[in-house]
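hi! just following up on the protien thing from before. the input was this:
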Amino acid sequence: MTSHRRHYVGRDGVEKVYETHLLRRSWREGGRVRNETVANLSHLPGELIEVIARSLRGEAFVPASAAVRVTRSLPHGHAAAVRAQATALGLPALLGPACRDRDLAFALIISRVLRPASKLSTLSWWADSTLGADLGVTDASTDEVYQAMDWLLARQDRIEATLAAWHLAPANNPAGMALFDLSSSWVEGTHCPLAARGYSRDGRKGSAQIEYGLLTDPEGRPVAIRVFAGDTADPEAFMAAVTFVRERFGLRELVMVGDRGMITAARIDALRALEPPGLGWLTCLRGPAIAALAAEQGPLQPSLFDQTDLAEITHPDYPGERLIACRNPALAAERARKRDDLLAATEHALAPLIARVAAGRLRGADKIGVAVGKLIDKYKMAKHFDLAITDNSLTITRRVEQITAEAALDGIYVIRTSVPADRLNPAETVTAYKQLANVERDFRTLKTTDLDLRPIHHHLEDRVRAHVLICMLAAYLIWHLRKAWAPLTYTDEHPATSKDNPVAPATRSPAATRKATRRRDAHDQPLRDFHGLLDHLATLTRNDLQYATDGPTVPTLAEPTPTQRQAFDLIGATIPLTLA
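and the predicted 3d structure came back as:
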């Protein structure tokens, strides 16, 4: 192959260069050398011309697939990001001293964030990501995992005491508040000693369950969790929380915030009797108590809300306490709509029965009463109907006056607290109570959207407690990840709040609305939900590349996308080749 380069200057005075690459062959004929141009290669890409020239000089080339082989490719980015965030939070040291049990417990917590599943499924999955190899747990046995769970449970009090010092102590919790609520999850099998039938918050009335109480800081950051038998009442669980807050955490000046079923009058009396005193409380009155305040000549009258949505009232039945009455118009409208729908649904359910009695197909007051009893409270509306039953008739009428009286209280709730006004003004008191929504968000994280805590498959009491503790620590990790990755997801980074009217429903900020509309972040990258972001990070793989047939194997990361780079930037970490 011959190459020629020609230079000449055009009329515009610009020097131009032309390269010609010709594939030629030569031979001798009759004593003379003959030449022939086989092909003009000038229009081929330069790199291809170079390959042809080197081949003609005797160099040997092989296909790229034979030069480098990908011997293994494992998901890496999601595990690396979650592990980096856990390390930044000090989670390994929080669990305890370095040992095999800590490595396994740490891997179980990270795995719960990445891929919630049974322990046996998690064991087999460790070999399918870089998490297992880098943390050295790929070869773990089932017995080792259960031993690590027992080790972690034995350290629960120390772990939670440290979290309480980080997030509930006065230095980091100037509001001096802690949120507490109770939830439940059903149990599979029949041998768990904690399993019992109780009020199911999962809507599984026929199933045995366990209950667990979650303690958080005012922002909803999980701090401690306790498991109870499935028939434990809310007030009993609340007093257990009070005990470990005072005795194990040494926090005696907190304000415990709980819902109306949690902090009852009897529990308030118990709190007042504590020695030494100091633990405050903030809750809400039940419906009958609100109705009593709204009775004739009572302090809670409709005119109270003519100019404002909240007002502080007093009543002799609540000495030394503050009562903050609130009215939410949006909540009032929703309750009225729901009540009308349920009343209509109850009448619709009873209509065929009324028709049977009228047609004479059902007779006898006793039989008619039994049939009515099966239907009248299907939608919890029996209190709003009067029944007239004879041997051959059935009449059902609405209690209009009672319904009207109940409707007058729609949207009204009364917050009850021991906290003085110089520490919490009325608006701040309402805001503090509404922060219980943060605990409800944590329960959604634990039970459904993220960690899939339920159902409970463990049979031993300690294993159930260890399983719930692992899920709580994973929820702690997710709380920080969601906060850090808010710019990459649909999370409202700056929710709109009104200090002047905290009773008003929460509204989405304009920035969040723009994100949801555009579906792009500030860098014009696609937005994802939290799990979608983890799935995207998992596509950042670590690939084992082997050069030549018997050459070395070199682990190499795939090229990160802009979103993957930003995800690591937001948690203050570089993209590591290994998790160790």
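Residues 329-358 form the longest helix (30 residues).
The longest strand covers residues 15-29.
cheers
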